[in-house]
TrEMBL record:
Cell location: Membrane
GO cellular component, one term: organelle membrane
Pfam family, one: Aa_trans
Protein's membrane topology: Multi-pass membrane protein
Protein name: Probable sodium-coupled neutral amino acid transporter 6
Organism (species): Theobroma cacao
Length: 362
């Protein structure tokens, strides 16, 4: 009967791993969540930098919103913009000690993502009717061994996108009606899957082979539609706002797991203001440094998703099923678990090899 209390302290993912795989497994799970969430939050800040201050890809500069409105100044630079936004917009949200306090910002963030998606779909349909969209590439082009291995670099990005279960227990712990949690999870995953798939499809249909690693950087050119600048800004601003409001939701479990790893025997983090402040400030500093010095979201996506992402999404759940301390897993479950581990290891090694090769030969 003490197992629920274990999860209350360490969270659902580390809790399950601790019960099934022991202390080493728990520490590894906590470390994986920390690395995954730090990588994700760095990606969020890089996207905000791309949107507001612009980005450079393959020698081509894509102007940001602030550059387009006010021109290029020191105060529109990536580092200054992300520092100011973090201090003014993000830090107040990061001071909340309950994830329930972020319920309204979460709803607004989803609404902003839907606005962005609706505009992208509308632009794509308009250009399709006008006959100005080329037929998309329905299957990958494999010309040599290098292009084959490059296919696996997309796997970590997809894994990264669907890693959200580290927030399940904090949310369930604060729900007044705990039995409603399965409905909450199913609804959330379904809505996210729809938005992800539609964004990927229509974004690629719209830009084809010109699609950049950060899709929002594509919205700085003439799309050949009426009110082009207005729609470009709506897409970029709505998604940047979405990311700003999602940031504290991802930060919440990150802070809990860092505290649990560093101070496993201490009182709850919410009851110690000094420790809460120090952990928060330290994590913000690390994330800011990463966002300023990592040049592309693709780099952060690939290495984070290919390492800890594969552990959290595939390997840990499969290992728990294989160990099966309560004898509830079927033979089919165990076969699928072995398959999950093989696929995760193979795709991870392939993705890391491809990433490292690309960086070394660039």
């Amino acid at each position: 009967m003490s197992l629920p209390a274990t999860m209350k302290i360490v969270g659902v993912v580390p809790g399950v791993v601790l019960i099934c795989l022991g202390t080493v497994g728990k520490v590894l799970a906590q470390a994986s969540i920390i690395i995954n969430n730090i990588g994700g939050l760095i990606v969020f800040l890089i996207i905000i930098e791309d949107v507001l201050s612009g980005s450079t890809s393959s020698g081509v500069h894509h102007a940001g919103i602030l550059e387009g409105w006010f021109g290029e100044h020191w105060w529109t630079s990536r580092a200054v913009v992300v520092l100011v936004l973090t201090a003014v917009v993000l830090v107040p949200f990061l001071c909340f000690k309950r994830i329930d306090s972020l319920r309204f910002t979460s709803a607004i963030s989803f609404a902003l993502a839907v606005v962005c998606l609706a505009v992208v779909i509308g632009i794509t349909i308009y250009k399709f009717i006008m006959g100005s969209i080329e037929a998309p590439k329905y299957f990958p082009t494999i010309t040599n061994l290098s292009s084959f291995w490059e296919l696996f670099t997309a796997v970590p990005v997809v894994i990264f996108a669907y890693l959200c279960h580290y927030n399940v227990h904090p949310i369930a712990n604060e729900l007044a009606d705990s039995p409603s949690m399965p409905t909450v999870v199913k609804t959330s995953v379904a809505l996210c899957a729809i938005v992800y798939v539609m964004t990927g499809l229509f974004g690629f249909f719209l830009f084809g082979d010109s699609t950049l690693s950060d899709l929002l950087s594509n919205f700085d050119t003439d799309l050949g539609i009426p009110y082009n600048s207005l729609f470009n800004d709506i897409v970029r601003i709505s998604y940047a706002g979405h990311i700003m409001l999602v940031f504290p939701i991802i930060f919440f479990p990150l802070r809990l797991n860092v505290d649990g790893l560093l101070f496993p025997s201490a009182a709850p983090l919410s009851s110690d203001n000094l420790r809460f402040g120090l952990v928060t400030v330290g994590l913000i500093a690390i994330i800011l440094l990463g966002a300023i010095f990592i040049p592309s979201i693709w780099v952060a996506f690939e290495f984070t998703g290919a390492t800890v992402g594969a552990l959290l999404a595939f390997i840990f759940p499969a290992c728990i099923t294989l160990k099966d301390p309560h004898g509830i897993a079927t033979k089919k479950d165990k076969i699928l678990s072995v398959f999950m581990i093989i696929v995760a290891v193979f795709s991870t090694v392939a993705a890391i090899y491809s990433d490292a090769y690309s960086l070394l030969t660039a």
